[in-house]
Write a structure and sequence with these properties.
The complex is a heterodimer of chains A (about 600) and B (about 180). Among the domains of chain A are: about 5-55, no CATH class; about 205-265, SH3 type barrels, CATH 2.30.30; about 505-600, Mu homology domain, subdomain B (Immunoglobulin-like), CATH 2.60.40. Chain A is built from six helices and 32 strands. Chain A has helices at about 5-15, 25-35, 35-55, 85-90, 205-210, 370-375; strands at about 110-120, 130, 145, 150-160, 165-170, 180-185, 190-200, 215-220, 230-235, 240-245, 250-255, 260-265, 275-285, 290-295, 300-310, 330-340, 350-355, 390-395, 400-405, 410, 415-435, 445-450, 465-470, 475-485, 495-500, 505-515, 520-530, 535-545, 550, 555-560, 565-570, 580-585. In chain A, α1 runs parallel beside α3 (about 35-55). Chain B has about 180 residues and is an all-alpha fold. Helices cover about 65% and strands about 0% of the residues of chain B. Chain B is globular, with a radius of gyration of 18 Å. Chain B starts with 13 loop residues before the first helix and ends in a 5-residue tail after the last helix. Chain B folds into two domains: about 1-90, RNA polymerase sigma factor, region 2, helix turn helix motif (Rna Polymerase Sigma Factor, Chain: A), CATH 1.10.1740.10; about 110-180, Arc Repressor Mutant, subunit A. The chains are: A mainly beta (about 600), B mainly alpha (about 180). At the A-B interface, α1, α3, α4, β1 and β5 of A face α1, α2, α3, α4 and α5 of B.
């Protein structure tokens, strides 16, 4: 009697018909007594059957037409690599002349794979109206920002036949700028020659299909089930009606709203279900080529979003300098995110993402954008990126370029946030600014922060929205305010405006006005009532004519902030109203040149 | 007459005979690639690449061995190179499903077919260890006997048998895990 081990050895031979017939009764005898071996035999047979089934389902591979030109093909001489192992494979290419095409080009369709995709996304320029993802039909008063990105799509094509062939990409954004598309071979520039490039965007919409059916037979079915279908030649159509001429009668108009459906013989040629880029290429080189398609597309945009989380409030209460009212110092953590919007109509899978910060000069659409030229130059050193930060920043021309370190997938209609900058324990000086004559009788709360390394930052901050969070009385961090910041270089001061103070009331009145020829003198008074628990300094901002030559404020320090703006620092003790009087004199004929007292 | 020539091709010029031999070897080569990879796309690529390499190296083919044996050796080397390369670097993003080749294009029916072919058995084949996939491919697509396989791979016959046995049992196990009755 055989054991299971012997039986296993025989069974594998049996399922492949290699078992001598005289041994079959032996194995059958064993199987009659052994459940495990019977199960194994069933498994072996099932697996073989499944393989046979899978092989039978081999997809039919269409054999491509051989190149029609019977021109001799010159095989390029290639230096065989020295490696002995490769010698067999590579062999020696000789200058050969054969009557038909190369053997491989004749078999199977070309295959295109994406190897790499990089996106350089621009931010919304100053003065443009945001319309990313909005319907195009709307009317705008300002130049509209539909987003702009430079896409470099690198692909590998295999089995590209020698000679002329057509390839097409269906996964291109609907808002691509067709005039910006360039295709070039990376394997050998010049090896691939673009004969023709088409962008097909005639989508199979109801109207596009109907248009192609003018003068042809259509059948219209009414919503009313009792009405007969109308078959005839489609003469014309517009948004509301169709004109059909049934055979043998006069034309009839049909209201489209009344129709259930319109039947056509078949989908007309030349219409596509997705926008498609198509090239007619002449390949004079290898059947396997790396190539790159670069283009500009709308529908992609980004902006910076910051979260400023106040960690400790008013940490400076006891740091009293020479008896004056101490400035209010807060400590905060800042995180900046890049918010990238994709409304381009396609998903960019595992893309290398770059964000260009700075107001790039753009010509409103319909003009070729100058940006292509800019971005060209960055491509050189994009390989060596550190892995640890999520983004690396580099100065670039007069702007900054942020590169996301890891490939990112940007889905269509997706808004994605990626951390861009962060700073911890950033010190902010909180102050109150009241603009004399402002319609709101309260000072604005303004925080100043220096964008320096010493202050935990020191990174270029792109223009964006900053949101302020502060710890509430119950310890929970609460959303407080939001403001916008401009592009801020390193070591510049940022002024963040957070709305108006609740507990400080201000008012301004003009107390006197004199005029002597062209010489004007105004005297005003600002009243400040501080209802807070602590003393604060309120900066009163006074707008004066540019021709002001004298400014006077007896009780408080003042300085000229810029031409036409004077700031007075008024200490407001809690619970005690304070008034500041000031006088300014201007002369449109001869005035101007006002200086701060310490500059005089 | 060299070994790889059939009487009908004997009169053709050498290159043309070689071409015929390679073209005829495509279908078994494709099936061989399918069992190695579990993917018809990859199989097609393997077949194409092997034929291309063989064609380029045709001058070095001495006619001693069977041209098909030689071609399959090239295919095996290519596949092993690819395995090594794949192990050494992260996978590239391939998205053949998103593009459309117009000229010449696989018909929609072929594409549907391709999608359907991604069933239990292809997943099971994909999961086979390289060693088992290789030997199973030799057996199933080329129909080599155990002793031929043993000679080709330079292993004892019982080893060849047991590897195929393990491969089949593994496939059976994977298929069972996939079948709806098991859920």
């Amino acid at each position: 009697m055989m054991n299971c081990e012997q039986a296993q050895d025989m069974m594998i031979a049996w399922v492949y018909d290699e078992l001598p017939t005289d041994q079959i009764p032996d194995i059958q005898a064993h199987l009659a007594t052994c459940d495990a071996c019977r199960a194994e035999l069933a498994d072996l047979r099932a697996a073989r059957a499944a393989i046979a089934g899978a092989l039978a389902r081999e997809p039919a591979v269409p054999i491509a037409d051989l190149p029609t030109r019977r021109k001799p093909i010159r095989w390029r001489r290639i230096l065989a690599p020295l490696a002995a192992a490769a010698a067999l494979v590579v062999g020696i290419m000789l200058l050969l002349e054969i009557g038909t095409g190369p053997v491989v080009a004749a078999i199977g369709p070309p295959i295109i794979e994406r190897t790499d995709i990089s996106l350089t996304v621009l931010s919304q320029p100053e003065g443009w109206q945001d319309a990313v993802g909005q319907p195009k039909a709307r009317l705008y008063y300002r130049p509209t920002w539909r987003g702009l990105a430079m896409v470099r799509d690198r692909r590998l094509i295999r089995r590209l036949p020698e000679g002329v062939s057509r390839i097409s990409f269906a996964d291109v954004p609907a808002d691509i700028r067709p005039d910006s598309v360039r295709l070039r071979s990376l394997t050998r520039p010049g090896g691939l020659c673009v004969l023709e490039q088409n962008y097909q965007y005639d989508l199979a919409t109801a109207d596009a299909v109907l248009k192609r059916y003018i003068d042809r037979d259509v059948t219209a079915l009414a919503k009313d089930a009792n009405a007969d279908p109308v078959t005839g030649v489609l003469l014309s159509f517009d948004r509301r009606s169709l004109v059909i001429r049934p055979a043998g009668t006069g034309p009839r108009t049909l209201a489209r709203a009344e129709l259930q459906s319109i039947h056509l013989a078949k989908l007309p040629d030349g219409l596509r279900s997705t926008p498609t880029l198509q090239w007619e290429l002449e390949n004079r080189d290898e059947s396997r080529q790396n190539f790159e398609v670069a283009y500009l597309t709308e529908g992609l945009s980004w902006r910076a979003d910051y979260v400023l989380k106040l960690a400790r409030l008013d940490i400076s209460a006891d740091a009293n300098e020479d008896g004056g009212i101490p400035a209010i110092l807060d400590a905060a953590d800042l995180v900046g995110y890049a918010t990238v919007k994709n409304h381009s109509g396609v998903t960019f899978k595992n893309a290398q993402l770059k964000l260009l910060a700075g107001d790039v000069n753009l010509i409103p659409p319909d003009f070729v954008s100058p940006v292509v030229g800019y971005i060209e130059k960055v491509a050189e050193d994009e390989s060596a990126e550190a892995c640890s930060p999520t983004m690396t920043e580099k100065a670039f021309f007069e702007h900054h370029l942020y590169t996301v370190s890891r490939p990112t997938t940007l889905r269509d209609r997706e808004t994605k946030q990626i951390e861009m900058v962060s700073g911890q324990d950033v010190s902010l000086t909180r102050g109150y600014v009241y603009t004399a004559g402002h319609k709101i009788n309260a000072p604005r709360v303004v925080s100043e922060m220096v964008n320096s390394e010493a202050n935990g930052l020191g990174k270029p901050l792109p223009k964006g929205v900053m949101r302020l969070y502060a710890p509430g009385p119950d310890g929970e961090t609460t959303y407080v305010a939001q403001t916008t910041i401009d592009h801020t270089p390193r070591d510049e001061k940022l002024r963040l405006q957070w709305g108006h103070a609740f507990d400080i009331a201000c008012s301004a009145i003009q107390t006197n006005q004199r005029r002597n020829g062209y010489d004007h003198t105004h005297t005003c008074r600002v009243d400040i009532r501080n209802h807070k628990d602590r003393d604060v300094t309120v900066t009163v901002r006074v707008r004066v004519p540019a021709s002001t030559y004298r400014f006077e404020c007896k009780d408080f320090d003042w300085h000229v902030r810029e031409v036409g703006i004077v700031e007075i620092s008024v200490p407001a003790v809690a619970g005690h109203p304070v008034s500041a009087s000031y006088t300014f004199q201007y002369n449109p004929r001869s005035g101007g040149g006002l200086k701060s007292p310490h500059d005089q | 007459m060299e070994q790889w020539e059939t009487p009908s091709t004997a009169e053709m010029p050498r290159d043309q005979r070689f071409r015929c031999a390679l073209t005829e070897a495509m279908p078994p080569l494709r099936r061989y690639g399918f069992i190695l990879t579990g993917d018809w796309h990859a199989a097609e690529d393997l077949a194409q690449e092997s034929v291309l390499r063989a064609w380029r190296a045709r001058e070095s083919f001495d006619g001693q061995a069977n041209v098909r044996t030689w071609l399959f050796a090239i295919a095996r080397n290519y596949w092993r190179d690819q395995l090594r390369r794949k192990a050494g670097r992260p996978e590239t993003t391939t998205m053949p499903e998103t593009l459309e080749i117009l000229d010449p294009s696989p018909s929609p029916a072929t594409r549907v077919h391709l999608a359907e072919a991604k069933d239990a058995i292809t997943v099971a084949i994909e999961s086979l260890p390289a060693e088992q996939a290789e030997i199973l491919a030799l057996r199933e697509s080329r129909g080599l006997s155990f002793s031929e396989i043993a000679e080709l791979l330079d292993i004892p016959v019982p080893t060849a048998k047991s590897r195929i046995r393990y491969a089949l049992l593994r496939l059976a196990r994977e298929l069972k895990a996939f079948s709806p009755e098991n859920e």
